[in-house]
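Re: your question about KH domain-containing protein

S., sorry for the slow reply, the queue was backed up all week. Below is exactly what I fed in.
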Amino acid sequence: MTASADFDNHLRQATFENRSRDLFQRLIMQASIAQGKRQITITERIQVPSSDHVAEIVGKNGLRIKQIREHLKVWVKTPTRDELPIFEVTGVPDKVAEAIRILQQMSEHFTRVQQERQTRTEPTRVEERLYVEQDKVGLIVGASGQTIRWVQQLSDTHIATPRKQEKQPGLRTCFTICGTKERVQFAKQLISEYVAMRCPG
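Result:
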């Protein structure tokens, strides 16, 4: 798309927003006159920290903004990605003030969520080996890998099975288990208990 086409699209969008706001203002005035009291409409602006805040406030398919518009009977102009993250709210003064307050609360809540995500530390993942007798590998893996998948799902780990080798009595091989320390230990416990149950003594 050319720069000229981009500009035309932006101009059409801006024109649509302005017409929608003007129509909303007229509807408010008509409703006020019908009620016997003429109410003025005002436009207030509120800037949020980022375009990510805008997306969070607007919601999927614009659902949150629609709810604010319908509940408070205000017009909320949302900024596009290439604009400053500033919302414009038009309506009667008390409803505009309420909408601005709600937008501010939503913005502050998302800021806290972002900060929590940044400070949250992921558990350290480890990689450990579980040595077993070579002739037990098939038992641990199970038919079509069902047993080892079951262990992985229960323990939330990733387990690499040893390469298939010629079975020789007394030789040992190993499974490699990846996950958090606690999960890896749990996976080892599950495997050991399963082998002990299937091969008592």
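The first strand starts at residue 42 and ends at 47. The chain has seven helices and six strands.

Happy to talk it through on Thursday.
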